[in-house]
Amino acid sequence: MKQELIERLTRYAKIDTQSDPTSDTCPSTEGQWTLANMLVEELKAIGMEEVTVDENGYVMATLPANTDKEVPTIGFLAHMDTATDFTGANVHPQIVESYDGGDILLNKDLHIVLSPSDFPELSHYKGHTLITTDGTTLLGADNKAGIAEIMTAMEYLIKHPEIKHGKVRVAFTPDEEIGRGPHKFDVAAFGAKYAYTVDGGPLGELEYESFNAAQAKITFKGKNVHPGSAKGKMINSLKLAMEFHAHLPANEAPEHTEGYEGFYHLLSCQGDVEQTTLHYIIRDFDRGAFEARKATIEEIAAKLQEKYGNERIQIEMSDQYYNMREKIESVKEVVDIAYEAMKNLGIEPVIKPIRGGTDGSQLSYMGLPTPNIFTGGENFHGRYEYISVDNMVKAVNVIIEIVKLFEQKTTTE
Ligand SMILES: [Zn+2]
Questions:
Q1: Which of 85, 109, 110, 300 is the Cys-Cys partner for 381 at CB 3.0 to 4.6 Å?
Q2: CA distances from 16 to 157, 353, 403 (A)
Q3: pLDDT, tens digit, 9 for 90 and up, residues 193-236
């Protein structure tokens, strides 16, 4: 199985599928079509049924049930695009067989080294087969490892019909890295009761909590007058903006928070005397605290409006996504089964909140509860990205075990 995973991931990695937030097509880039079409052919070749790609580049396929039991349909998803943070063109994956625990020379000419002194977690991988970059690109294991793992698990189930299972759906989706992954995802056509994104990091990761997220744009209007004759007349919008920001709690910012702590993050400030705009994102795991944060923004704005006039401060605030826990808690078996699958395979589940969003956060609110499971990768989105093939095998086994458990837990004929 290791060879198949290496072959698949390296083949997918060589296609540049970086997404592009400035494009308004879906997928946002042509390379994602190239990969989508390759995956369609491959799904057909391994024997999957109902293989489709829609006009927006969403690839779907079915592994039909091989039991008469009424097992709920479950799905597995991975995204085809790679991060915008670092180049994904001309990726040359390198294989490190039985890693010795020392420095890995990624690029001799450029002296780029992947070292346990910078990345102590490398010590967990002694003896593993690793796939790394050549130091000049990202690897794209986020999330092509997920695609390789789902594909390999489906092929295994097709070749082992003695493993009984319900209907399984798989989907490979575009533009996750630019936040659009689920925007055109056809939940009804997918037709699963539960799904899993296979898009996490190291071994054991199991995630079903994400931030609640909103953004706020606050515009301050000043009154510009020649500074020599401005006394009692000039209103400097930059100073209104600074006064606004000073009302926010200084410690509730990304650089001061971790774990379950929420924050206000000032993303950008643009302005001059006449007009200034502050752009914030607001994040919290707790829905009540999230609503309270938005109320705080509105209260500060109201206070300044009272002081300087309503017309001086305009506020536009909108929600972006919500904590999927709210949608998953009522169907907790979707998480419990993944937990049990890992335990059965001797993998210790690592449950932690995602300080961000996943496709699953949006999908869960679209009616498809979707926690996230590990791929086995580390250091996503940069030149030091790598993945353990040994742990990729474990991810494949977790997918197979989840499929088995759904069948075993169904008692209705
Ligand atoms: Zn990802």
A1: 85
A2: 29, 30, 31
A3: 999 999 999 999 999 999 999 999 999 999 999 999 999 999 99
pLDDT confidence of residue 201: 93
Going from the Cα of 243 to the center of ligand 1, the distance in angstroms, rounded, reads 38
Please report, in range form, the residues annotated as the binding site for Zn(2+).
79, 142, 177, 199, 381
pLDDT digits (tens, 9 = 90+) for 61-72: 999 999 999 999
With beta carbons less than 8 A apart as the criterion, state whether 82 and 75 touch.
no
Annotated binding site: 79, 142, 177, 199, 381
| pLDDT at residue number 413 | 59
- CATH number for the domain formed by residue range(s) 212-320: 3.30.70.360
Catalytic annotation present for 109: no
Pick the closest to residue 14 from 130, 134, 129, 112 (CA basis).
Answer: 134
CATH superfamily of 1-209+324-409: Zn peptidases (3.40.630.10)
Report the sign of the C-alpha dihedral through residues 284, 286, 287, 288, in that order.
negative
CA angle 372, 374, 379 (to 5 degrees): 115
Give residue limits of the domains in the chain: 1-209+324-409, 212-320
Angle between helices 287-308 and 237-246 (to 10 degrees): 140
- Which member of 16, 20, 42, 81 is catalytic? 81
pLDDT under 70 in the chain at which residues? 413
Q: Is 81 a catalytic residue?
A: yes
Tell me, what's the pLDDT at 106?
A: 92
